[in-house]
Amino acid sequence: EAITAAPETTDLVLTDQVMPALSGTALAERLAKVRADLPVILLTGYSDEEGARCPALRARLAKPISAPDLALTLDRLLHP
To answer: Are 57 and 51 a contacting pair, CB within 8 Å?
Structure first.
């Protein structure tokens, strides 16, 4: 809700795939409707390819995530 109320105040979204009310891919799709250029990174501990099929995602990282992998992904998305 905070992002949809003021989408210009967010630079990037880092989300888990499994959440109580909404999946990470569903969140990415909702955010893309509000602000298509907002980078969304999906974190997942599952081997399914759901995130790979979601065009609203800019990156998908498998847990456990190493600090260097996260840093490289953040740098790539925030400083293209």
So the answer is: yes
